[in-house]
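Hi there, hope your week has been kind to you so far. Thanks so much in advance, here it is.
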Amino acid sequence: MLVNFLSARLLLATALVLLPAWALAQKAPAAVKSPKPVLPAAISKALTRAQVPTDAVTLLVVDATGKAPPRLAHRAGEPMNPASVMKLVTTYAALDLLGPEFTWNTRVLMDGSMSDGVLHGNLIVRGGGDPKMVVERLQALLAQVQYSGVKVVRGDIVLDRSAFQTSAQDAGEFDGEPLRPYNASPDALLINFKSLVMRFTPDPLNNRALVAVEPPLAGIVIDDSVPLARVARCGDWRSELRASVDNPNRLQFSGSYSVACGERVWPSAYAEPASFAARALEGSWRALGGLLTGTVRDATAGELALLRARGTLSGEKPPLRLDAPSLPLREIVRDVNKYSNNVMARHLFLSLSRQRDGQLDQASPETGRAALAAWWKKLLPQQPAPVMDNGSGLSRIERVTANGLAAMLQHAAQSRVAQDLLDSLPVAGMDATMRERAKNVAGQAFIKTGSLRDVTAVAGYANGASGARYIVVGMVNHPNAGAARPALDALIQWAVQER
């Protein structure tokens, strides 16, 4: 299904550990210079080919139990930008603080009276921060509302997005790519990652390609077909479409689509993300046969205060209240780590300060940072706390040391959520972001990857030839970081194969 592809594609486009005695015993006297570490030959050669100096790299391979000295340690105490490897911190903190069964709840409420399928008043949709309210789940919820008797809303559909307190954000602020789905910002009522998916299907008999878009969006005119080019190769089909996607009210194509491409899909962030939830809700409501006399709009602060005072938002008064819990956290964490989904990670980060009962706390980046700092201090008091921004790694300021990451992963390996975290990691040579990497040790390493301009990183677990399980951390901060990926793959291979 298109929805399932969207989920996978956009997911891919947030006890005490003490230093063991050996670590203290091996610390060199202040007056003696430690020898420069000798890196394994394959790693050293790959760094040389990438033209990356060793002082731009941190590497660490250590037993997962913490009971043996590191097999390899190079600049392991230096704070580095980990890119998406920072998601390991966010996801383990979420699993530990909230529990693997934690869910976010989206609630639909009536504020008015019902008669003959007509709601005389407003339908309220209260977002709870669900990180994965894709179009399929949204439409199932709205269908349930209609099945419960509401066919016509003689009023407005009012959106309560107050669970998250986030400032307005320029989608292109990070890298100048506002239409990239990975730049979507958090939203208490996040619908379909604020992204649409265009689907192109050749129709040779009519010399055209049909265009379908999900989710249906209210108030936007979309070309339903494009001319079909009868050429032998697919080529750069997106460029050849010459799409205009920067107008929130119009989506059109002035180019053509090659018949050789077959059926293709193109996910894109929406040009006006602030209105996406409203447009998707109205479009889906009407597509399901529902009628609406008013508009879909955000609730005002005064309106929310009045609804709270009347007990409407808690569901104490209205004749209709429908709750739609999210997927459990353990499943959300798999999407975050396997497909490195930034906005889902940021939802986890914002949720760290919330209670286990899922109450709406008006979470903010500040409360997320405070909750994570307190959690880290309790679990790993010997390690400097990571510098957190939004918990996703999509940041120029986030920092963590290899020692800190390894200590956290050692703690996680002994925790009640060890299997949940392990199951969330891409498997070397087999799936997700590690499918095409470290194939020579396929199935033997479970690695979170990270990549930004000037950053490449890996961290996770590896099953060694000795039978032991190791923690592997490698981070490169350098303009040639992208070219250094083979060095990090060599690190993983070395951790698995060398005894």
